[in-house]
Amino acid sequence: MKHLLQYLILLLLGFSAFSETQAQQSISFQHFVGSQPLVLEDSIKNSNAEILVVRRFKYYVSNLVLIDAQGNRQIIPDSYYLINEAEPNSKKIILPNSNKNYSAIEFLLGVDSARNCSGIQTGVLDPMQGMFWTWNTGYVFAKLEGSSPSSSLPAHAFTYHIGGFRTGENVLKTIRLAIPGSSLPKDLQVKVDLNAWFSGNSSLLIAERPVCHSPGNLAMKIAANYAQMFSIIQP
Amino acid sequence: MRKTVILGLTAMALLVIISWMNAPKKPHPIAFSIPKGWPQPAYDFKSNPLTEEGFALGKKLFYDVRLSKDNSISCGTCHQQFAAFTTFDHPLSHGINNQQTTRNAPALQNLAWQTNFMADGGITHLDLQPLAPITAENEMAETLENVIAKIKSDKAYQTMFLSAYGDANINTQRVGKALSQFMLLMISSNSKYDKVMQGRDSFNLPEKLGYGIFQQKCASCHPAPLFTDNQYRNAGLSQDDVLKDLGRMRITNQPADSLKFKVPSLRNIALTAPYGHDGRFFALSNVFDHYRKQMVLGPTTDPQFNNRLPLSNFEIGQLKAFLNTLTDSVFIRDPRFSEPGAAAGPGNHGH
User: Fold this and answer.
1) Residues of B with Cβ-Cβ distance to A215 under 8 angstroms
2) Is A122 within 8 Å of B172 when comparing Cβ atoms?
3) H helices then E strands: how many in chain B?
4) % of chain A residues with pLDDT over 90
5) What would the pLDDT profile of B37-84 be if each residue is shown by its tens digit?
6) First to last CA, chain B
7) A chain contacts of residue B138, beta-carbon cutoff 8 Å
8) Which CATH superfamily does the domain covering B45-188 fall into?
9) Choosing among A136, A166, A214, which should be mutated to test the B contact, i.e. which has the most B CBs within 10 A?
10) Across the strands, what pairs with B232?
11) Does A126 contact chain B (CB < 8 Å)?
12) Nearest Cβ partner of B125 from A119, A126, A128?
């Protein structure tokens, strides 16, 4: 009896969820190196003409805001997403139902300081996701790992773990992207260009700096670069 | 029409009964009592209300070797009750595969009054502290995924999570909170010193003289009742050329914080040898000799030590007598914190 009831309830819930997704809008993150789509484990050349293989590419998108033509801000509550190249589903953010038109989106690249400071979080913010420094409390906001013949480290590895939320080492970046035609398409396509890591603001050579594992000056320099990796793909 | 209404009502009534039968019993709250005259604790108990069930779960986790990769080391391996939860007689503790930690394990006591953890203050919340030893390659070397998987597959844990949290969901957050519940209740406030302050006991002459010297020469950094000001200071310990520990600067990147370490509490100090952030002082006499003779004065050494810390042999004798009054024998024998099935004593613990 109990099972039957639970089954029926689940079925009903399932139906309603299904019908909702039909009308839902979304944002999709598409990863590129220049004009080439990123493929993990494939050898590629970056904007500094260094050859590299990307093994891991992950970053937090949080505190999402939809902005309409009048400048009204609709804050999406509790919005934390971990975009991970290795998990296709993670690259699509489903937006709550809304019929409004928006002219821009805004989000934090990283995790706000409140969530860095209030103990262990759950879901995508669970330290189990491997995006957390256990010895120096705080989230890794973005991670890029792989190998490159330019790197002088064992196995020619490079690892960039970028984070830091305290004054003097804050790398939280607010990203604002205008939506072409001021009309949010059903699935907004955001291009994410890895080349920005290496040449967005200043040049980062894997040969010179193959590792960044803590908050500080290098992390701030790299974050100033990657803050420029986002753009909207015209439909 | 009437039939469907009756049917619907019966179904609803059934649902209510089923959910009532399934509802776990409420956990039993534990009151956190602040010792008389102590400040308000820093820990936010609203975010993690103490309960008997949560405490019991935390205790099981604290003494569970499955938190380590090869199931050989628990928190209690390095934090031994009879040594006020330090590692008895070890400058550095042993992790898995014969590796060593890079710092001396501190006493675990009065953690509810602390906002930052580790000698460099790198961890800013007690709930987060366990993640560091669990994942450190030279300590327990386990992944959080594996720890959670091991716990999830254990029937006893499933029941304990259910009774502590009301549902059987097991995640990192709940593991951290349960461990905090266990550690938050480790309050050491029953030493002879405390009894003297409460008028229930009295110092003998050396203790009394030692207390006077302590007030004059030590209390500025090691103030009662916690016997630490929880600040980071350079007490003139030269940098070890193997460990190359920068202390607080490792966290802040500020040269002004170079070689500064958290001022340790002196409660239970007679039980927690060796001393210093890397355990370089074997006995209290080595600490005193450091303060009066060996201290290395550098750019970040605490200004209070401009002339080092002159101490006569007589003063050292009295200070030792006073420091012995900070031993809390109730705390180190309290069965609430004891490893299940083990008798307290050095003999039971490897080496």
Assistant:
1) 253
2) yes
3) 12, 2
4) 81
5) 999 999 999 999 999 999 999 999 999 999 999 999 999 999 999 999
6) 78
7) none
8) Cytochrome c-like domain (1.10.760.10)
9) A136
10) B262
11) yes
12) A119
pLDDT of residue A11: 46
Model confidence pLDDT, tens digit, residues B152-202: 999 999 999 999 999 999 999 999 999 999 999 999 999 999 999 999 999
- CATH 1.10.760.10 residue spans of chain B: 45-188, 192-324
Residues 6+ apart with CB under 8 A from B131: A120, A127, A132, A134, B144, B172, B176
| Per-residue confidence (pLDDT) for residue B350, from 0 to 100 | 42
Query: Cβ B131–A127 below 8 Å, yes or no?
Result: yes
User: Which superfamily does B192-324 belong to?
Assistant: Cytochrome c-like domain (1.10.760.10)
Cβ contact (<8 Å) for A137 and B118? no
Cα distance between residue A157 and residue A150, in whole Å: 9
- Under a CB-based contact definition with an 8 Å cutoff, are residues A188 and A101 in contact? no
Per DSSP, B293 falls in state I
- pLDDT tens, position by position, B309-335: 999 999 999 999 999 999 999 999 999
Chain A to chain B Cβ contacts (< 8 Å):
71
Q: Residue A14 pLDDT > 90, yes or no?
A: no
